[in-house]
Amino acid sequence: MATEISPNLIQDHYTESGEHIVSRGCKVSAIGTWLKKGALDISHAPIASLFYGAIMALCVMLVYTSFQQQPIMMFKMATLFVMLTPFLATGLYATSCQLSRHQQPNLMRSLFAWRQNKAEFAFFALLLGVIIAIWSRITPLIGAIIESNSLLIVNPNQGVMSFLTSEAGQAFMMYFLIGALFLAAIVFALSVVTIPLLLRDRNIGVISAMILSVKVVGQNKLVMLLWALTIGVLVSIGIVTLGLAMLVVMPLLGYASWHAFNDLIEVDDKQSIYDIDV
């Protein structure tokens, strides 16, 4: 990617193939607009929204029921799902794109929207997998260092709360949250533009898309920070409600993220294949 040549509000980028992409600066108030548009998309695509929301809700419930006596493993799996969320939201991006074109939402087409850019999506999934693999190694290491494995459950009847109220559990959570926030910030910066751009523009490669994503985050530091915090708060609500809130949170954030992408990025239609089949 070439260096930007315009003011901070609007910046020009050029890919290795010569494609022209414009990134725009957004105001903080745009976050509310993205969420409103996301909520509107839910009402226009109730079946697809319920489907994707239910998948995420089920995942949260399965993690809790499977690992409620193993807090370290539970928090580890919960973080992995959060990191995978941008990739899992591809179907929601496709659904929102259908709605923006005044098309009837098609669940099956949205499920396989990634197929039109298989190689690049696969490469991004591989990179995300590497990050997740690293985190999978780090999490138990944190527990071993602070010796929280010896205090996984103080009272089996209290489950996770017993762990969180123990000294070792609190020490584990402090280091865990620091690491999780750091990795989540990396995933956010790499994916906030990458996945929707790969879905919408077949000309761009995953490396160029990730570089552009990081640049867009840098161009909108405050807005992206608040947007990331908004996502974190809503996802946390979905987790602490044992997945029930995910029925709404997942589609809301997926649709809102698509609208955020469209406010942040503009591709020169004359130089790109901008006709995705969703």
TrEMBL record:
Which keywords appear in this protein's UniProt record, sorted alphabetically? Membrane, Transmembrane, Transmembrane helix
Q: Any keyword Transmembrane helix?
A: yes
The portions of this protein that span the membrane are 45-65, 77-100, 121-146, 172-199, 220-253
What is this protein identified as?
Cytochrome b6
Look up and give the organism this protein is from.
Answer: Thiosulfatimonas sediminis
